[in-house]
UniProtKB/TrEMBL annotation:
Taxonomic lineage from the root: Bacteria, Pseudomonadati, Bacteroidota, Bacteroidia, Bacteroidales
Protein's name according to its UniProt entry: [FeFe] hydrogenase H-cluster radical SAM maturase HydE
Gene: hydE
Taxonomic source organism: Candidatus Aphodosoma intestinipullorum
Domain of life: Bacteria
CDD domains: Radical_SAM (cd01335)
Cofactor(s) of this protein: [4Fe-4S] cluster; [2Fe-2S] cluster
Amino acid sequence: MKELTDKLADGHALAEAEYLSLLTCNEREAEYLRQAAQAVAQRVFGREVKARGLIEISSYCKNNCLYCGIRAGNPRAERYRLTKEEIMECCRQGDALGFQTFVLQGGEDPAHTVEWVEDVVRTIRTAYPAKAITLSLGERPEEDYRRWFNAGADRYLLRHETIDRTHYAQLHPTAMSYDNRLRCLDSLKKIGYETGTGIMVGSPFQKLEYIAADLKFIERLHSEMVGIGPFIPHRDTPFRAEPAGSVELTLRLISILRLMLPTANIPATTSLGTLAADGRERGILAGANVVMPNLSPVEQRKKYSLYDNKICTGDEAAESRRLLEKRIEAIGYTLV
């Protein structure tokens, strides 16, 4: 396993069978992997952790993904849409707190026309020309992506969720297309976005062989961002009784991804912090370099309920940033 870790650190690529071996290594070998990934992250980013301001713009979604709390078929979901003015207020708060990136995330809301999103992006770009704008708004036609890019968006996050066709069908309704998800990722790369993808670790029906294939896909895509976090069930979905994903396996994947993609932005996700009190800190020590404090209006955050028991839904933006800053400083890093 030490040889495989060193091979990945040197060449940034492995065969699927070799990725599978890393996924199943013992604790001592996993610690060697973690230390190697931490060393790479510190060489590239120092001891700085980047803060991205997350703005959850809508809890409406036309899709019925079986794992998601805001799925269209959940009658108990509380719905909201932020207005453009509310989004700009979130940006003003984020600017005052020093954030250099705004992340606009939401369900695939039919009310979010290409023109509406285009206007929001252009307004943010005009007001904050030096900021980065990341979108995570699901699957759209290539022309929509192109218009948003031309309006000023820099980055787009679209998790592929699984590269296995059978597994994809087990997680999504028949109306959703595996091929279309991959087409969207190809379009984003072609247009010029910094493109992010990722998976849920421990999602229902997932096999380690699928994760090894996911790693190979991410390697080939050469993602600039990779968002992975443990699966957490939501009480109002068909997967309500499924077990949560593994924190340890998620941390191991972060380390593998860091060695594969030394300069990629890899977040220590909120879902990690939800399953383990020190999950985000451990993610950073495993090779992650990004956290995403929430800038959304406090009164709306609980409504953006993708999974149960999500943390940080009640903190004001300034308080959330301050608390996260202290936690990161406690492990010897600096929030920037």
